[in-house]
Design brief:
- There is one protein chain.
- The chain contains 2 helices and no strands.
- It is about 70% helix and about 0% strand.
- The protein is mostly helical and about 100 residues long.
């Protein structure tokens, strides 16, 4: 069973990795567009190959972060849910004389 700090760290890691994955997705989309444009304008040029390399880098980072996020979410979902502290039973109260 994971401790409370480990669960908090896992949730933070999931949120942070989601943000990073969104950044990598934006980078992959941008470089895909630039690679297509450069391939259309200057096919076979050095700029096209550099753009294709950067597209491959961002795509691989996107895939790795997606896999890590999937594993982290699976690990967090298997942990028991956080519930409120159990209520103490209220006994009979007696007035002090």
């Amino acid at each position: 069973m994971a401790s409370k700090t480990e669960r908090v760290m896992s949730l933070r890691a999931v949120r942070q990795l989601s943000r990073v994955r969104a950044f990598y997705l934006g980078g992959a989309v941008l470089w895909a567009a630039l690679t297509a444009w450069t391939g259309w304008q200057l096919p076979g040029s050095r700029q096209m190959w550099v753009s294709a390399l950067l597209l491959a880098v961002f795509t691989s980072l996107l895939l790795m972060s997606s896999l890590w996020l999937q594993r982290l979410r699976a690990a967090v979902s298997h942990e028991p849910a956080h519930h409120a502290a159990p209520r103490k039973t209220v006994g009979t109260r007696r007035a002090h004389a």
